[in-house]
């Protein structure tokens, strides 16, 4: 498992299983080397294994968060009048209209109007209601919109 690149796996559950297996393998390697007496906490290869295991742990945590986020996005939602992940709206201003959907990171595609809550438009619309006036902050300045309707 040591050389397997779990990051190449697209399915989140499969990637998580791969990373968890890799983490377990690294833990076992660390324990075997410690018990063999040939390695100590100061040994460079031991530190390298510890660093790799910490990195894999961070990847595991990140994939778990992405799975939770996707499950929240896919789960049936109670009907609310606020804009949240999974909802699409039409924005209107003096230059025309813009249709956007607030989506998870995995589903983001700005060219199709699928934006995350971390994007400038997402930050401006998340938690807002139909009729609210918003300002989208961009490097060239703020662009005002009115949230016209759900689509």
Mean pLDDT: 86
Distance between the termini: 47 Å
Q: Please trace the helix and strand order, writing H or E for each element.
A: HHEEEHEE
State Rg: 23 Å
Uncertain residue segments: none
What is the number of helical segments per DSSP (H or I, 4+ residues)?
3
The number of distinct β-strands equals 5
Largest beta-sheet details: 5 strands, mixed
Shape: elongated
How do the strands line up in the largest sheet?
Answer: 3-2-1-5-4
User: Structural class of the secondary elements?
Assistant: alpha+beta
Count of the domains: 2
Strand content: 15-25%
In short:
By secondary structure, the chain is α+β, with helices and mostly antiparallel strands. It has 3 helices and 5 strands; from the N terminus they run H-H-E-E-E-H-E-E. It has 2 domains: 6-74; 88-150, Transcription elongation factor, GreA/GreB, C-terminal domain (Chitinase A, domain 3).
Per-chain topology:
Blueprint: H1 12-36, H2 44-74, E1 88-93, E2 96-102, E3 114-115, H3 120-125, E4 133-138, E5 141-150
Parallel strand pairs: 2-3
Antiparallel strand pairs: 1-2, 1-5, 4-5
Helix pairs in contact: 1-2
Structure, described:
By secondary structure, the protein is α+β, with helices and mostly antiparallel strands. It has two domains: 6-74; 88-150, Chitinase A, domain 3, CATH 3.10.50. Helix content is 41%, strand content 21%. The protein has three helices and five strands, in the order H-H-E-E-E-H-E-E. It has helices at 12-36, 44-74, 120-125; strands at residues 88-93, 96-102, 114-115, 133-138, 141-150. It has a five-stranded mixed sheet with strand order 3-2-1-5-4. Strand 4 and strand 5 form a beta hairpin. Helix 1 (12-36) packs antiparallel against helix 2 (44-74). It is elongated, with a radius of gyration of 23 Å. It starts with 11 loop residues before the first helix and ends with a strand. The model has no long low-confidence stretch (mean pLDDT 86).
